[in-house]
Design goal:
Number of helices: 17
Shape: extended
Radius of gyration: 39 Å
Length: 420
């Protein structure tokens, strides 16, 4: 749908007459040449938002536009142009391009639920009140009419102010019963503390706000009670909850018995690697050392001298600190063909231009070619995974020994047969 608008809102009689004259003139143009509608809308429509799109409006449904516009728009056929239509905003010429069928209930359901569960939607209160009534019946819920009556009277008289909250959150008023759910009583001070930030002068609005917040508070108590009862009343929920709890326990035990135990056992990892070196051979040569990129040749020379004085464990951190802004340095272990600079230095590949223009000089400290890992750190991820598998197998054997499993072969055959 698209339209051309001439505004009349806020104009005097002469202005309205001028708008009518202009819209009639535009109508004669687009009626004689419908293909010009978009261009005419862009040049003349006073709805500047849609005018930029040739007068095109977003998709809309019945009741979303003002009544006069709505009735004409839905009476048109595809491609038809209306005569000028008067609304509270002004005069419109409407053109219908296309229409959509009403979506299926299944397709509209998520959108409808989102709307009616939005607290700003007027239907939200109806849904909440119906839920409250149902849950109150299930959990013997009730509001204390005496307490509610006294509270409303105070709000009507003095509004929601600091004095009111001070009175209702201090004895003796604070101890008055407000709600009962499943035999448990909530005092009025619990509710008043939850809304103590509100400030509304004495008025019908203050009472209405109190009632709305009280309804929400009471509903919340009932929803909590319903959630607590689901484990007993809903087998699917009970099974899902049990599965979640069991899964969490299994995860925690696995962390303690397998994952963390293997990852933190540095001596054990090193020993495991030494015992299983043959499992970690490489098919391609690897280059290992420290790849350094420097800002210029002079700095590179200084870095080489300093690096010769440092232990491998502190080399990267020390060089970064002392040559800050003039160096990029990393410990590397890469296979041939992985890093162009390393390939040039170690494997004789052509020289390359560094990607970072700030560092034009590159070299390696203590470079060497390895055909197999030197130490566990060279293949720590693989070793850790295999070491964890060893812990896992040991734990499973322990469990099998402690908790023997007996399979009912007859039932197993029936399950396999029914699954075919």
């Amino acid at each position: 749908m698209s339209h051309i608008l001439k505004l009349t809102q806020g104009k005097d009689e002469a202005g309205v007459a001028q708008a009518k004259k202009e819209i009639d003139s535009l109508y004669n143009v687009v009626k004689a040449a419908p293909e010009t509608f978009n261009a005419v809308a862009t040049a003349n429509s006073e709805d500047r938002g849609s005018a930029r799109q040739g007068g095109m409006l977003p998709w809309f449904g019945a009741g979303e536009m003002v009544a006069e516009f709505d009735s004409v728009a839905f009476s048109l056929s595809d491609g038809e142009i209306s005569e000028p239509v008067k609304t509270a905003y002004g005069y419109h010429i409407i053109r219908r391009y296309d229409s959509q069928e009403v979506p299926s209930l299944e397709k509209m359901k998520p959108q409808a639920i989102a709307k009616i569960t939005n607290p700003q939607d007027p239907r939200f209160k109806l849904v909440r009140d119906r839920q409250t009534a149902a849950f109150a019946k299930n959990h013997k819920g009730s509001l204390n009419s005496k307490t509610v009556g006294l509270l409303k009277a105070d709000v009507e008289r003095q509004g929601l102010d600091s004095l009111l909250f001070a009175n209702w959150t201090a004895a003796p008023s604070a101890d008055m019963p407000l709600a009962s759910v499943d035999g448990k009583t909530k005092k009025v001070s619990d509710f008043m503390s939850s809304i103590s930030y509100l400030r509304v002068p004495a008025s019908a609005t203050a009472v209405e706000m109190l009632e709305d917040n009280l309804d929400a508070y009471y509903n919340g108590l009932l929803v909590d009670a319903e959630e607590l009862s689901l484990e007993q009343s809903e087998p699917d929920y009970r099974n899902l909850l049990k599965e979640y709890i069991d899964g969490s326990l299994l995860y925690e035990v696995s962390v303690r018995k397998v994952w963390d135990k293997a990852a933190k056992d540095t001596d054990g990892l090193r020993s495991f690697f030494e015992r299983n070196r043959d499992n970690y051979k490489w098919t391609e040569p690897h280059a290992k050392g420290f790849l350094v990129q420097a800002s210029n040749d002079s700095v590179a020379g200084l870095i080489r001298e300093r690096a010769a004085q440092l232990a491998p464990d502190t080399l990267v951190q020390t060089l970064r600190k002392e040559f800050k802004g003039n160096i990029a340095v990393d410990k590397v272990l890469v296979s041939k063909g992985t890093n162009a600079m390393v390939d040039n230095i170690v494997f004789g590949a052509p020289q390359v231009q560094p990607s970072n223009a700030k560092y034009q000089v590159y070299f390696m400290v203590n470079p060497r070619v390895l055909m197999e890992p030197e130490e566990v750190e060279d293949v720590k991820g693989l070793v850790t995974s295999d070491y964890q598998n060893e812990f896992q197998a040991a734990w499973e054997n322990e469990l099998r020994s402690k908790y023997p499993v007996i399979v009912n072969e007859k039932v197993l055959k029936q399950v396999k047969k029914s699954g075919k």
